[in-house]
User: Fold this.
Amino acid sequence: MHHAAVFSVGPRAPLELRQVPTPTPVGDQVRVLNEWTSTQPFDLHKADGALAQYPDIMGDGSVGIVVEVGDQVKRLQVGDKVFGYMWKTSQERGHQTYAITQERFLAKIPSNISMPEAATVPTNFVTVFHTVIPALGLPLPWPKPDSYIPTSTDDAILIWGGSSSVGQYALQILSYYGYNNLIAVGSARHHAHLKTLGASKTYDYSDSNIVSQLQRDIGNIPYFFDCIGSVSSSILPIAQLANNGNHVAILLPLIFSPPTPTAAPKYGYDVTAVADWASGVRVTGVRTHAYEDNEQLARLLQPEIMPALLQAGVVRPNRYRVIEGKDVLERAQNALTALREGVSGEKLVWKVADV
Ligand SMILES: NC(=O)c1ccc[n+]([C@@H]2O[C@H](COP(=O)([O-])OP(=O)(O)OC[C@H]3O[C@@H](n4cnc5c(N)ncnc54)[C@H](OP(=O)(O)O)[C@@H]3O)[C@@H](O)[C@H]2O)c1
Assistant:
């Protein structure tokens, strides 16, 4: 048996649809008919020349129906609607008719969210836990004890890129855990929304005085969560603000210049060399894929924590735009083109299998 998969075949080359073998799930593996997916900046980074070994199947998230299970699968059964973040092998990618992955990367879709909404969640929900716990050193215990108040409840945590997908999930999750001094940096049109997600103060990154405003209003900021990684418009201002002992977590890759419809991007990875950091600033570049180094997160994050916080309404999915096209290849290409042109405060989602 074979199925269709969308491939990136070279830097900024048109995507291609190819047939690949469909493996049978074994052990704790599940085969999912992918119905919805999203195109993430990660897909654009790969398609435009970073992080990819071509040819490369696109998509690290999947939303669909379980169609076959291995003999050690315990929680899921054929017919379940599931969503997850999957990334280990090309078989697990979302931009193809079927994904075959381990059960622990999948959760049942809660009754209060739709499939396209589910497509906005897994990658960036996972990223928040992986950034906050190891890179910022802040606890997010699960289950959250009754009346839990974190030690750093009043410490300022600056979310640069609050209206990005990661930023919106970070605000909601940190707020749920009782971090009460969340400073969000995003464009002004999203400020009211960011306050509903937990931001206590908002700033506009297009304001040329943003650094002096933050220095004047907030003073020392112990924690910086850079959801953008733009050398000129997030990292350099953060480097002006960060002092001895502060933690700075930057989502990789570092973007020296972003992809545009006419220009290839320039990326980097060395977070210590990218700016003139003050002595004693603790800077970490975040690669989400390492989250499985934490045994508890590996076991619980996707099957249990993610659906529980969605079902409880603690975390709301991102706003989204449905990308249309006559077939899966055209939808994938259109989503990539739209992302290259720039998005604001929304995820780009599209139908994979024509069911
Ligand atoms: N390394 C990892 O493991 C990992 C994991 C997940 C994500 N990431 C990376 O994290 C980045 C964000 O991903 P995402 O899915 O959250 O992106 P996204 O939702 O597509 O981000 C779009 C938003 O970025 C905001 N933005 C752009 N430039 C900004 C700036 N200079 N300052 C503040 N906000 C800015 C825009 O805000 P406004 O609309 O307010 O203008 C826009 O709404 C991507 O580069 C992605 O690859 C890395």
